[in-house]
Structure formats: C-alpha cells, structure tokens
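Worked problem 6 (solution included).
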Amino acid sequence: MKTIDDLEQQLGGLAGKRVLVRSDLNVPLDHSGERPAITDDGRIRASVPTLRRLLDAGARVVVVAHLGRPKGAPEARYSLAPVHARLAELLEGTEVGFCEQTVGAQATAAVQALGDGALVLLENLRFEAGETSKDDGERGAFADELAALADAYVSDGFGAVHRKHASVYDVALRLPHAAGGLVATEVEVLQRLTSSPERPYAVVLGGSKVSDKLGVIDNLLGSLLREGDRLLVGGGMVFTFLAAAGHEVGKSLLETDQLETVRAYMRTAQDKGVRLLLPTDVVAATAFAADAEHSVVAADAIPADRLGLDIGPASATAFAAALADARTVFWNGPMGVFEMEPFSHGTRTVAQALVDSGAFSVVGGGDSAAAVRSLGFADEQFGHISTGGGASLEYLEGKRLPGLDVLD
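Solution. The predicted structure is:
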C-alpha cells in the first residue's frame, strides 16, 4: 500500500492540495444529559496523527466519517457535531470547521473556503443512502460527489475497511490514494498476528454471541493455533460452550443452534493440542442489573433461575495464569458485563494479566477497547489497541477486506 509519503511525492507536495481523509470517528455517545457526551474518545485520538501529518504539510484536509447506524437520512442523535468539538480540542491551534452537509453546495463551499493547513469535518456519511448502498451505481454516484471535493484520498478509518462502502472503496478508485498511518499500523499488527506470531500464542474471546466469532474460531483452530497454544473463552458466548459440554446454564445467553458447531470446535482443539480454557466458576445473578442479587457458582451448577454475567474469581485466576507465559495475545470481547461493577472483575483480571505478561498484546477494538479504558488502563500498557473490532476479526478469519484490497 502507498503511504502518505508516497502520495506526497506523487503529487509534488501536499501544500494547497485538498485531501479527503476517511477517518473512523464512530465513538460511543451518552444521550442521557442535555447534550450528547462522548464516553470513549479513543478513535478520535487515534485519528489525530494522520491528520496532523497532512496539516503540517500544508494540505487542506476534508474529513469524512460515520457515527452509528442511521438509515440513509439525517438523524440528530447521530450528528458528528460532538465529535467535531472534541477533534477541535485535540487539534488545538488548527482551524477545524464543521459542515452540516456531507455533499452538495454547502459542503463544496466549506471545502473551497479552506486555507492551507486547515481542516473541515463533513456531516455523517451515513446520512446519505449512497454511502452504504449495495447498488454499484448509487454508491458510485455518491463516491463521485465525494471525490469531486478533493485532489487525493487517504484511507485512515480502519474500523470500516471490511465494508464495501463509497467512502471506503469507491472513492479510492477515483483519486490518487494512500493508506493513513493508522491503517498502516493496524495492518502491520494483524500481519504479525497471522504470519509469524511468537508462541505460545493465546487468544481470548468474549462478548455476547458465539455466532459472531464462528469465522475467527474456524480459522484459529484451522491454521493459526498450534499445539501448546491457548484459546480462552469467556463472556456471554461461553454459555453455549458450557451447554455443549452438557452443563445447565440457567437463564444465561445460549445459542442452541450452535451447540453442534461448538462441540466440533472442542474436539478439534483437543485433537490439535490447543488448550481450550472455559470458566470453572461464574458470577450468576437473578437479573441483568447492577444491583441484582448475585453469587459465585460452579460453571456446571448454574441455578435454573439465574444468568451468568461474568467469569468467576477462580476462572479469572486460571485465565491470568494461562496468559502469564504467552508471547502473543489477541483479545476480543469482555469476560462479563464490565459496565456493571459487580460483573467487571473477570475483564479487569484479564486486562491486568496482559499488562503483566511479556507478550505482544493486541486488544481487538470495540467493547474490549472501551472496557480496558473504562476500567482505568492506559492504551500504552498494551502492545496495540485496535480501532476496529469487526475489521480485525474478519482479517483473522482470513477474509479479504475491500478497503484494504482497493489500496493495493
């Protein structure tokens, strides 16, 4: 993939050039107050180095991004206005404008008004139906409007590179293009996880549904994990594993249609010598609530009227021990409902184990990244915190990612 340095050479310099940057600014918002509040600005902060690189070179930077899942029309709750305010703080000293349109006359005027070393953020891409359209013509027409705003394109929204969207794929076909620093780093990390990982290699999977992880488990057990490596399973998805092993899981999350698939995974792990760790105890509660009555129970004795909301303390200790001598660790998905303090301990223990180990540790975006930050860990304590959970998983599944293919 071409870098920004390559693009600068191709264009004969970036000063005065309009550069369209596809960033990933899809941050979680809390709408409970008078104004929406960003609860984790990690993706905004991760976008800054590439933007600063272009601004320092004198480029006129046009940033496009999405937020949430609007259905191709404006929705006030998904406006990028709160993101603009935070981006302006992080780029203090730089002119950072905001346009309430994505394309059209107002957007064109905002871009034409830019001076060298200035930036404008356009409104949510997904307010336009063409961004996510499966119709090549409709998507291409929107890409034409975006491309008309710029002289060059930089792809820096790693969290969207697994989507064949106009701003991710089609615009790169229409303009001189390069990968931003964030995308380049994410790809380098994923290549390290898939090409020549130091072993023992440990993968920690959590989150709610095992069906969300089928592809990655297939590829892990099929080609990436070897004898002596470890696969640790927690979160809501673990109850399908426990049920597949014949245990009662009460009212816990359960995907009955995946039981046979999970049993096959368990047999494959055993046959390959991959150590598959499941919890031996869980924190089971009477309801999905922070103040619900709860207790630690054996994983094979969950009461029928309770649901598991975290791995138990013995399991957390065992997981930490399994990570202690690992040389490479990939973690995607919390071990429990970390947003509720009584059910956050498993996730905290795993995060601390990664920090304490000498492993190259990768936290796979999404809820995992939000979890470690909300629990008080700093990004610098891990080898890498990905900005794209879905993109990371699809890469580890061995899938082709449109937003990377087009850059090649």
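Discussion: The CA atoms of residues 362 and 384 lie 5 Å apart.
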